[in-house]
Specification:
With 299 residues, the protein is α/β, with parallel strands linked by helices. It has two domains: 6-138, 3-Layer(aba) Sandwich (Rossmann fold), CATH 3.40.50.620; 158-284 and 289-294, HUPs (Rossmann fold), CATH 3.40.50.620. The chain contains nine helices and ten strands. Strand 6, helix 6 (169-182) and strand 7 (186-193) form a beta-alpha-beta unit.
Length: 299
């Protein structure tokens, strides 16, 4: 992922979406990108308001301007474009992203429907499933490391989760480019899953995992050397529960502000949506997570 030139922040006027907007605006400032702020208007709500003589779209545009102005970073940023579009939230976000040719979508972990969800709102989940663009998911606990600034200065390190030893290097490329943009460090982590076997078979399972760790270390180290960057990319190979290990990697930087980068396969490929592991990581990590698109070949 090269530094994005155009970023779309989807908001529903909730506090979590305000936090996501703040992140999007700061990232836009860091990249020199154009920022689009979108509110997807519920068509049934708009129709009901129209029957009462109210123009909900006009009110939503005014509210969106006030909402954006309440963001410390977005209020200072140009070019800035507001969009109020009637339609189902997920499809509207993806359609506007296509129309405006944005490079990145930013959403909050929760929305107005969030409390009813086990992990995050249905809109965020839908965007992750449908979008063929990278999606940044921002937890509602996020705060900028340097509130007085208008960018993401102080964020980092960037941690790239490598899906397996042969594919998923696109996530590392994205992490490297993001780290270069934010002037921070980057590292890579690959987790070899545990084998759940009968206890009497444990020595054999441990031997298999050890072989997988050695093979992954060799293959990934070779792939990392091919990345053109001045940054050092240290590699960690661990074994255990993938989601828990990746989340723990994000918590291993006390006093810092890490970003986690995951990969997912693009729509139309064999695996068109993020897997259960990715969803679990999103629920556990509590840090900004960039879910980057992978082609079938992992590029």
């Amino acid at each position: 992922m090269t530094p994005p030139r155009s970023i779309l922040a989807a908001v529903d006027f909730s506090e979590p979406s305000r936090i996501a907007l703040e992140f999007a605006a700061r990232l836009a400032n860091s990249c020199g990108a154009c920022l689009h702020v979108l509110h997807a208007e519920d068509p049934l709500l708009a129709a009901a308001a129209k029957e009462q003589g109210r123009n909900l779209s006009h009110e939503a545009r005014e509210e969106l301007a006030r909402f954006t102005a309440s963001s410390h970073a977005a209020a200072e940023w140009t070019p800035l474009h507001h969009h109020v579009v009637s339609g189902q939230a997920t499809s509207t976000i993806c359609d506007i992203a296509d129309r405006e040719r944005v490079n990145l979508i930013v959403v909050g972990m929760h929305g107005m429907s969030g409390p009813a969800r086990a992990l995050f709102g249905s809109t965020t989940e839908g965007v992750l499933e449908r979008s063929d663009r990278p999606v940044f998911v921002i937890p509602d606990s996020w705060a900028p490391p340097r509130p007085a600034t208008h960018d993401l200065y102080g964020m980092g390190p960037v941690i790239a989760a490598i899906e397996n030893s042969c594919t998923g290097m696109a996530a590392v490329f994205a992490a490297v480019r993001l780290a270069e943009t934010l002037d921070t460090t980057v590292s890579a982590i690959h987790v070899v899953p545990e084998l759940n076997v009968l206890e009497r078979w444990r020595p054999h399972a441990d031997a298999v995992v050890a072989q997988q760790v050695c093979r992954a270390r060799e293959e990934i180290a070779t792939a990392l050397r091919a990345i053109k960057t001045t940054l050092e990319v240290p590699l960690r190979i661990e074994n255990g529960s993938v989601a828990e290990r990746l989340a723990a990697a994000a918590f291993a930087w006390p006093g810092q502000h890490p970003i986690l980068v995951l990969g997912r396969h693009v729509r139309g490929s064999r695996r068109g949506v993020p897997g259960a592991t990715a969803y679990r990581v999103l629920g556990l990590a509590k840090v900004p997570v960039l879910v980057h698109c992978l082609a079938d070949d992992g590029s």
